[in-house]
Write a structure and sequence with these properties.
The chain is elongated and about 130 Å long. A six-stranded mixed sheet has the order 1-2-3-5-4-12, with helices on both faces. It has a two-stranded antiparallel ribbon with strand order 6-7. The protein has a two-stranded antiparallel sheet with strand order 8-11. It has three domains: 141 residues, 2-Layer Sandwich (Zincin-like); 127 residues; 76 residues, no CATH class. Helices cover 54% and strands 12% of the residues. By secondary structure, the protein is α/β, with parallel strands linked by helices.
Length: 415
């Protein structure tokens, strides 16, 4: 009996050991299962709850999408506004006048649409592009009307149809209120460049100081476009000689007064235009015109006249030192001026050309006006000008569209 009890106890102990081992194994597996299951469940929940990359666009992509949508909306709005304005012009202008939309411009005039397109391709589009590169960062938000008149009569008729005061003393006018340019294109395409500068400057810098606004626009009355089409380069014209004569007579006022006092008062309107243009030409020669414009625009709140920005560019606090440099430049230009340019400016308002004032040269130089000897009457005297003489003396008169012109004949100006 003793042996049997001992064997039984040994068997019980062995059975209990296997039992507890099984319990421990089950417990271990259970705990590991709970751990793995918990982690797996959390991962599954996160994967289900968290949206994928395609559902959460990045901030950059959202911004780009908003900008694109806004740009498309603005462009569509501008296009609709242009066509609405074109329809209104069709009702107001004579029936035989043409109207064409070349956003943001609405063109019109007493020409057929092909001629309007030619003016757009040769003058308006390249001038606007160069101005945007050089100066203007903000595009027009509304349509700009450009009406081209072929004669003084159609110029008057255009103003009458639009219920505007006739300003026949000017070759061109830009209306800020209506964003409208009206030009007598027979006085030269420089008039169009002048008024187009006003229109685009108004869109970019509405508070541009008047003296700089008129100086910049007048600078482009006679200019050439760079070979890469990126810049307009102003040239001497009839206004430069007016300001030089005033300087020699000691009647030219300081640039501080030009900027701070009333611009173009009745008694000195022509001289103020000439002064502002010549000063802009002076800044251009020193490669300061573009940075000066941008400084004026950036500091308009604290420098309404632009004088502080001007002094900073010249590294001086005394505007008289700027005047001294400007006057020396004017006198130096007068001494180095070619004799034929001075002669041209002297005869400019009395020469009678046998053809229109704007003559094509680039299209066919062998049969154009300058190809054959011509007669010009000047105060009763006749001058016979040969082909070579004209080319030598007046070649620089060709503007950026390859045409020769009498800018602002009869002393007319732009407004």
């Amino acid at each position: 009996m003793a042996v049997s009890e001992v064997s039984l106890k040994a068997a019980n102990v062995k059975n209990n050991r296997w039992f507890f081992l099984a319990i421990d194994t089950v417990t271990f597996i259970y705990r590991r299962f709970l751990t793995i299951a918990t982690v797996t469940l959390v991962a599954i929940c996160y994967a289900v709850a968290a949206p994928g990359p395609s559902l959460i666009p990045s901030t950059a992509s959202v911004s780009h999408a908003i900008v694109r949508e806004f740009a498309v909306s603005k462009k569509s709005h501008l296009r609709d506004a242009c066509h609405t304005l074109a329809a209104d012009l069709h009702r107001k202008l004579p029936k035989d006048w043409s109207v064409a939309v070349r956003g943001p411009f609405v063109l019109g005039g007493d020409y057929d649409e092909a001629v309007l397109e030619q003016h757009y391709q040769q003058t308006i589009e390249p001038t606007a592009r160069a101005l945007r590169v050089q100066y203007f960062d903000h595009l027009p938000t509304g349509p700009i009307t450009i009406l081209l008149c072929s004669s003084q009569d159609s110029y008057r008729e255009c103003h009458r149809r639009l219920n505007e005061k006739e300003r026949s003393e000017y070759s061109g006018i830009y209306s800020r209120t209506n964003r409208r340019v009206v030009v007598n294109i027979s006085d030269g395409e420089g008039v169009l460049a002048h008024e187009l500068t006003h229109a685009l400057a108004h869109a970019d810098f509405p508070d541009l100081p008047e003296w700089l606004d008129e100086g910049l626009a007048s600078l482009h009355e006679e200019c050439e476009i760079s070979s890469d089409g990126m810049r307009l380069v102003g040239l001497d014209n009839w206004r430069c000689h007016e300001v030089l004569a005033s300087l020699q007579a000691k009647q030219l006022r300081p640039v501080r007064d030009l900027a701070a006092e009333r611009f173009a008062a009745t008694s000195r309107a022509s001289l103020d235009y000439a002064h502002a243009r010549s000063f802009c030409l002076f800044l251009q020669k020193r490669q300061l015109l573009e940075p000066f414009y941008r400084k004026c625009r950036a500091r308009n709140d604290t420098d309404a006249t632009g004088l502080n920005s001007l002094c900073e560019l010249f590294e001086t606090e005394d505007c008289h030192k700027i005047d001294d440099q400007f006057h020396r430049w004017l006198r130096g230009g007068a001494k180095n001026d070619n004799w034929w340019r001075a002669a041209w400016m002297s005869f400019e308002n009395v020469v009678e050309w046998p053809m229109a004032s704007v003559l094509s040269f680039r299209s066919n130089p062998e049969t154009s006006f300058v190809s054959q000897p011509r007669l010009m009457s000047c105060r009763g005297c006749c001058l016979v000008l040969s082909r070579d003489f004209i080319r030598k003396c007046f070649f620089s008169r060709f503007d950026f569209v390859g045409r020769i012109q009498l800018p602002n004949r009869g002393g007319k100006s732009c407004f």
